Amino acid sequence: MFGLYGAFAKVVFLTQLEYRGQYIMRMIAKILGWSSGFILLVILLKKVGPVAGWGLYEILLLYTFDVLSYSIAGTFFMGGFGKLPRLIRSGELDGILTKPVNPLIYLICTKVSAGYTSNYVMAGVIMGISLHKLGVSLSFYQVIWLILDIAGASLIQAAGFMVTTVPAFWFMKSDGLYRLFYKNLTCFLQYPLTIYHGGIRFLLTFILPYAFINFYPVQLFINKQEVMLSPLFLFLTPFVGAFVFFIAYRFWQKGLDAYQSTGS
Amino acid sequence: MSYITVDHVTREFKSFKRPKGLKNALTTLLKRNYEVKKAVDDLSFTVDKGELVGYIGPNGAGKSTTIKMLTGIITPTCGTIKTGGIIPWENRKENARHIGVVFGQRSQLNWDLPMEDTFELYRRMYRTEEIKFRKNTEMFTELLEMQPFLNKPVRQLSLGQKMRAELAIALLHDPEILYLDEPTIGLDVVVKDKIRKFVRELNREKKTTVILTTHDMADIEEICDRIIMIDHGTLMLDQSVALFKSQGADQYYAEVSFRYCKEPLFLDGVELIKELPFCHTYRINHRLVSVNVLLSRISELFEVTDITIKKPEIDEIVRKIYTSQPGETSGQLLYTK
Ligand SMILES: Nc1ncnc2c1ncn2[C@@H]1O[C@H](COP(=O)(O)OP(=O)(O)O)[C@@H](O)[C@H]1O
Ligand SMILES: [Mg+2]
Description:
The structure holds two protein chains of two kinds. By secondary structure, chain A is mainly alpha-helical. Chain A is 72% helix and 0% strand. In chain A, helix 3 packs across helix 8 (140-165). The model of chain A has no long low-confidence stretch (mean pLDDT 91). Chain B has a six-stranded mixed sheet with strand order 5-6-7-3-8-9, sandwiched between helices. Chain B is α/β, with parallel strands linked by helices. The A-B interface holds A 3-4, 7-8, 11-12, 15, 18, 90-92, 94-95, 97-103, 110, 257, 259-261, 263-264 and B 13-14, 39, 60, 64, 68, 71-75, 92-94, 96-97, 99, 101, 103, 105-106, 108, 110, 112-113, 117, 121, 124-126, 181. Bound molecules: adenosine-5'-diphosphate and magnesium ion. Residues 63-64, 181 of chain B line the site of magnesium ion. Adenosine-5'-diphosphate sits between chains B (13, 15, 37, 39, 57, 59-65) and A (260-264).
């Protein structure tokens, strides 16, 4: 079963690499986009010093968790969900629903994006540097947790994509929701939650649990335990990820049930 | 037992009304007002295995909506559908194994891949056995004459080639039912002809049940045995193609090109409907005028250069049926609005 979806994903992935000029342009755009944000952050932090007790490399670690999980989620979900309204309007979804496949997995595989590879490399390098500068040497179990955290964080990001775009099934458009509840809110993740008002922390922990993408899991590796209800929060990311993704999946299924297709 | 049953099916669509003016736009913020439109309205019919059904009706009649419910893409608002014992939208995956779908107005193909590769992906997706797959690809390649473009990326294919490719991939897994929604739209006569022959051949070989929507009477004439017509989502008629054609057959058109004309043709049952400088088109009622009388009158009045006889198009028969009363067509109509 995985082989089939893998075959579709491979074809789509390789095709993107074939359009080499376009691919390289995208890479460059992505690198410029991220690195300008990154450089700005470094300059700012060098100027003002630690933020609420968080040093440069600790904040960079937050940053890499965010970028890495965003990129993984983007690789699989951006192609399908970023353009969901168009997919609905063009009737492309009709074709998916008449195939003997799981619509979500098929959508993910046939819309997989090769455009995030530069992000992986960049986030990986910065993560390595930060951990090194912080004097953290990861034990075997910590490596396992790191991987689980990134996986959980990616699921949270993916759930964020899905939940804010799936309303297109009812309203045909959803870019407003996506921008407001995903793009804008995840901006808070650049800095430790400690600096924000309690209301925002509550929102990002219990309502839209983006704080589990980086703020809580990162603290495990740098021996912090700030503003968390319980030390358990250090370990919750994989579970929160699985849980919100499940909810997002159910929401997607509800969307499919409400799917009206398009007149022709 | 019928193979496909559509039982009192209704499908409504909600569409939001665009507000006019600022004041109305503001009130829609508070209360959404939408229109409910019945695309399909209490529709029932059954189809047996191996039937070739032409599903017709004017634009917006609800044909595509019906096909989408039959294929499980959308759910009915109420009523039930079963195809081969399955409720399509409840068992989409299971249903997908038994059906092939082609929408003439949109493509399912990966534009970067040549057909050969797409065939292979579809073989895996439907878990088609190797032998069956071989046999089918060979048969389709030959019947649809696809050999010359099998290894070209789809984006380089012409519209006609793409449509043949669509047909082939929809059928590789030997579906029991084939749904074709306007498959010949925009194609030239040669390709249309290939496709028609192919579908007929397929039905003969594999007993595939076919439901086809089209606006082209020749599609119906050459492919289908039975016609189901709907309008405003309700059943208008359901009968054999032979019977259907006989309703329009008492009328035909004669296009007379001439060098010289004494006076226009004037006969009972003949009506001049288009007058060009050297070409008249007449509508002729078969029952009132014999062909003999017609031809002799024409040769008396005209110095003829060419005569073309045209049968009425499907839309015409359709229009004729709409405007006639139930009594007139001797009970062939099941229902008239
Ligand atoms: N997704 C949709 N949303 C809103 N209205 C629709 C939708 N699909 C179809 N309709 C409406 O339903 C009616 C029937 O459409 P359709 O089934 O596509 O007609 P046909 O295929 O016979 O031309 C049309 O009035 C059309 O505007
Ligand atoms: Mg249609």
